[in-house]
Amino acid sequence: MARRRGRDGPQEGPMPADEFDHLDRLDRLDRFPSPPGPWAYEAVGAVVSDDHNAERGRDAARAVVEAMLAKAGPDGLTDIAVELSSKLAEALERIAAEQGLAAVDLAEVWFVD
Predict the structure, then answer these.
(1) How many domains does the chain have?
(2) Hey, which of 38, 40, 105, 110 would disulfide with 83, CB 3.0 to 4.6 Å?
(3) Of the candidates 80, 82, 81, 106, the residue with the CA atom closest to the CA atom of residue 92
(4) Low-confidence ranges of the chain (pLDDT < 50)
(5) Domain extent for 96
C-alpha cells in the first residue's frame, strides 16, 4: 500500500483520485471525443509532474487511465497504449541516435535487462 500524507499525518492506502491536482484537467477531456493523444499526455504528465513522489505520480497516471477506461472502454485503452508506445519509440530513437546506439538495443536495456 502507498504511504500518503493525510490531514492527520501519514496514512496507508491508495491515494484517492480527488486528491490529485493534476486530474482537474480530466473534466475538460471528458467533454471531447476520445483521441488517445491528450489522454496519453495527461498520463505521462502525471508521472513526471511530481519529482519528489514517484508513487503519487504513478497513482495519478492510474487515475487518468481509469478515467479513459470509463469513458472509452477497452478500445480506448488499446488506443492509449498504442499512442504511448509510438511516442516512447520516437523518444528512444532520438536518444539512441544521440548515443550512437540502435533504438532496439536501447529499448532492450530499458525494458528487458
Answers:
(1) 1
(2) 40
(3) 106
(4) 1-11, 17-18
(5) 22-111
